[in-house]
Structures are given as C-alpha cells and as structure tokens.
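HUMAN: Please help interpret these tokens:
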Amino acid sequence: MQKSTAKLVIALLTLAWLVTGCATVQSKVTVFHKLPALSEGKTIAILPVDKDNEDSLEFKSHAAHIADRLNSKGYRVVDASEKPDYYAFVAYWIDKGKPYSYRLPMYVQTGGGMTYHSGTVTTPTGPKTFSGYTYSVPTYALISSRESGVKFTKRLLVDIVEGKPYRDDKTAKVYEGKVVTSDSSEILSQTVPFMIDAMFADFPGKSGKTHTVTAPLNER
C-alpha cells in the first residue's frame, strides 16, 4: 500500500474514533457588558427569569454552580433580601430537536495481509501436515457509514442589572451573556453545567464578541 493511502486510512480511522468514542460539548458564547474587569468585592444575587423556578431544586443546583464561578471572579453572592449591588437573572431552555443524517467515509481491508494456512499433503513416505503464514499486499475499499439521530439546541441566558435601579423599578443592565449549544441528549440538566462553565470561563469577557468553547463530556 502506498504511503499516501496509508495516511488516509489512519486519518479516517482516527476520525471515526473521534466521532464515536470522544464526545464533546461545543458551546458558542456571546457577551455584551460594561462591567469592570475586577469586581472589587461587589455583591450579587442570583434569580430565575421565570419566577416559577424560585423553588426548583434544579434551578438551585445551577444557581449554586453559577455562584461558585462568580465567587471565583471576586464577587460575593448573597441573598436577594440583602440589597446587593447586582442581580443576575438566569434562564435556560431546550428546543424540540431537529433530525440529522450524514455519511462517514471509511477504508476497510478487503484482502491481503497475513494469512494462515494449514493442511495435509501426501508424500512418498506418507501424509504430512503443514501450517504457516503468508503475506501479500493488503487491499482496501472505501465505504461509508451512515450516522443519524436528533440534535437538540440548548440555550443559557444570564442578564445582570444594577441593584439600586432595579429596586426602584428601573432597569440598568450591565451584562448580557448567551450560550448556545446542541447535542443528542434531550436532558437539558446534563448540559447546563457545561454551558455555565463556558460562559464564566472568561467572565466578564470581551464585550461584543462571540467565541466557541469545547469540553469533553467525560470532564464532569
């Protein structure tokens, strides 16, 4: 087999392994803000956009995750009753899913290589058995493997507003963060932690920029 063909086989096999054996979560993060780079110990409360989630254990779990990330950035997360400097409003949702289908090209060996032989031959002194290996140049064929399924798009939204204007029934927004990702899991709660990590990895980040964050599924 020529070297170029060998390299192609290795590349295709590697691609197949990546597709089937190393799943990742890829998130697109978009941020607009006017927050300072350093928090200077500002206080912040985390609230759901949907008030029906105030008593949700799932929301409280995600809020605790966000609190850890904010604390690591120098903010002090407090209860909303403590009149914080900021309020962070959080929402997350999933769509109904869209079907997908694609073909993955692969080379498979169709012949050649090492072959084992054994048998019996008749000789003037009687039957004799034999066994051994022979080698011939391998041959390959290009095939395609069809992959299909359903992709679900998931979104995480975090808006941060100044505390005093909000308590005066006004809005002074200082941060808008959005994360969009898609995968084959219809369970939203499994993906939200990855989206939180993606949003707060470089918080508050560069305003007006969109960047992609990729993380392996086995990271959590």
Observations:
- Strands lie at 24-33, 43-48, 76-77, 86-94, 98-123, 126-162, 173-183, 209-216.
